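Case study 2.
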Amino acid sequence: MSESFIEYEAAERIATITLNRPQAANAQTLELLDQLDEAWRRAAEDPDVRVIVLRANGRHFSAGHDIKGVGGGGGNGQRPALTLGGIYATEAKRFLEYSLRWRNVPKPSIAAVQGVCISGGLLLCWPCDLIIAADNAKFSDPVVNMGIGGVEYHGHTWEWGARRAKEMLFTGRAMDAYEAERVGMVNRVVPLDELRPATQELAAQIAQMHPFALRQAKRAVNQTLDVQGFYAAVQSVFDIHQTGHGHALSESGLPILMLLDDMKSQIGR
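Prediction:
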């Protein structure tokens, strides 16, 4: 039996999905992402659920992709075939299609983020409609240092603004919770010990609203972004992202995913 990395609870019109791999800073194996996608599907299909909350156990929201676990069939440490086609297929499903699907679930969603949210962690919180951050939260995407232009789901320009996105990518520095709030990526910042109650309180407030009107309001905002080019941009930048893997393969025979262990020194688990 496979290990469970996701906790799911539905009560009082709120589905709460919890990443539960705290010993690894909730780093993402393919198995974790598949389980997470199933939890999103479950919440989306439950007629009693009006709001979805995504949160994480432990000190950190997510340290991004687990280098050993994103390459094989789950958390067994197998690595991907060293072909660009194999890498492309794996990432298109787990790192792009999943994130876009979560973004378009026709119910409001809220991410509660504490600790680090690095690279692949952004693929989990950015698709959510609202983000509540603990005062110790830090957001970063330092993969330019690994020879690639940014994580697979390119929300950077939309979430940070063009000039700030360039600064963050060019330098690899982390954005703290208050800066994230100032640029509009985060809705509000709360003390760490208030993160979960504040998130649940907001979810409960939204859950009282008319479900069809919530669906329509979310659709209206998302479609406005899509008309401005969001969806097409994310799809096209994913292909640009893959050239980073191709470059790494041509230089060393190794995909970028195998070179990202250097980033783990930032986590301070």
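The radius of gyration is 18 Å.
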